[in-house]
Amino acid sequence: MDHFLYRDGVLHAEDVAIPEIAAAVGTPFYVYSTATLERHFKLFDDALEGLDHLVCFAIKSNSNLAVLRVLGNLGAGMDVVSGGEYLRAKAAGVPGERIVFSGVGKTRDEIRMVLQGGIRQFNVESEPELRAISEIASELGVSAPIALRVNPDVDAKTHEKIATGKSENKFGIPIAKARAVYAEAAALPGIAVVGVDVHIGSQLTELEPFVAAFTKVRELTLALRADGHDIMRLDLGGGLGIPYERSNFAPPLPVEYAGVIKSVLGDLGCEIEIEPGRLISGNAGIMVSSVIYLKQGEGRDFLILDAAMNDLVRPSMYGAHHDIIPVIEPAPGTEAQPFDIVGPVCETGDTFAKARAMTPVGPGDLVAFRSAGAYGAVMASEYNSRPLIPEVLVNGDQFAVIRARPSFEEMLGRDSIPEWL
Ligand code: LLP
Predict the structure, then answer these.
(1) Which residues have a Cβ under 8 Å from the Cβ of 171 and sit 6 or more positions away?
(2) Tell me: the pLDDT tens digits for 325-344?
(3) Fewer CB within 10 Å of terminal CB in the chain, N or C?
């Protein structure tokens, strides 16, 4: 359940009518629901009750400081993959001891920054990275807590661009090599081995790949303990999928996912970390856009919106489906008709949906893209010199702009023309 519902025929975010926000900030814009963010975080947190655990929100899915503050206030940890994300977590008030640092290409500057600012653990993805962390930690005279991200060679059964747990993917250390790399890690100065990390992909809609990966993590943990390592923490990554199409089947629930964690790993006495992103933020946000034109094409009608692929890239990048609904609820019995729903960007890839059944809307009408709270605003660009669109947070009957739309002057002002021109 989310908090974007029709009330008296008008789509609301919690208690705020969407047209009210549109009038205040203009379209297009993203809007997030505090209640949904809180609810989704608690689903995981409650489901893991009984185990020592920390739910680390994957900031890459939605990195707005206000969103991070909502979750941080509930005690969430954060999973970051860059120095910028680390600084966002800190700026939102999350202490270093609740931040884990993942990613295949951590730079020396990032490693230094994080070691100085405080970090719960590095999820290390290669031997060269391990050695770099050891060198920098030694230089600084500190000890870097690390888990090795192992690649379990498991098929996550998701879109190929977001699967990460197969041996052909760039992520992690092959699980067969892990014991040797742990032995090296334990011998390196400035390194404290604290656990094992795994993440097999995103938008998983079945539990079986998690069972397969966690079972391999279990076997590895037992082997590492036998080798003399003190494995006290398991970071199990993120990846649980969400329903993008309301009419379709629903992916497993957090409580079922937590059930797998408990049954496969619950007896090891380890602290459990998970890194969900999409399940917390995805259905906590929508993108609202206006219809600019209705264009009759050859055998098809195009609905041309003021939002485009630069604002929400998932449909053109992954062929992803987002439900698109009118903000004013159609009268019962209104017949749907097929539309190609497109943006103004000058390439055919700027298509949100083809032959999508929609009740008729016309110029000036508002439509909402559901499930746009994850990997929406964070993946936006200014392609076609379209300024980034604003983000709004709703809480009950109040709303606030949490990232303003830059003016054209601000956008142009970032460029400069060299003197010699
Ligand atoms: N942990 C790590 C190490 C990750 O790489 C990811 C996502 C997550 C956690 C969070 O996964 P989630 O719970 O959100 O599935 N842009 C794509 C998704 C890319 C996911 C990348 N890694 C999309 O729009 O579908």
Answers:
(1) 104, 125, 149, 151, 164, 165, 199
(2) 999 999 999 999 999 999 99
(3) C
Cα 202 to ligand 1 centre (Å): 5
**What domains lie within the chain, and their CATH numbers?**
4-31+282-413 (2.40.37.10), 103-274 (3.20.20.10)
Pull the structure tokens for residue 397: 């009957």
Please determine, for residue 169, whether its predicted confidence score (pLDDT) is greater than 90: no
Would the pLDDT of 295 be above 90? yes
Which residues are known catalytic residues? Answer: 346
Q: How far apart are CA 321 and CA 357, in angstroms?
A: 13
Shortest-distance atom of ligand 1 to CA 375: 24
Closest by CA position to 391, among listed 15, 36, 89, 65? 65
SS (H, E, C) 66-81: HHHHHHHHCCCEEEEC
Give the residue among 328, 315, 308, 298 at the shortest CA–CA distance from 354.
Answer: 315
Count of helix runs (H) and strand runs (E) in the chain: 12, 21
Distance separating alpha carbons of residues 32 and 37, to the nearest angstrom: 8
pLDDT recorded at residue 167? 79
Cα distance between residue 379 and residue 102, in whole Å: 18
The protein residue whose alpha carbon is closest to atom 7 in ligand 1 is 202
The helix (H) or strand (E) run that includes residue 55 is strand 53-58
- Dihedral (C-alpha) 332, 333, 334, 335: value to the nearest 10 degrees? 150
CA distances from 405 to 129, 172, 298, 372, 416 (A): 38, 38, 36, 18, 21
Tokens describing residue 327? 């903000």
* DSSP category for residue 306: S
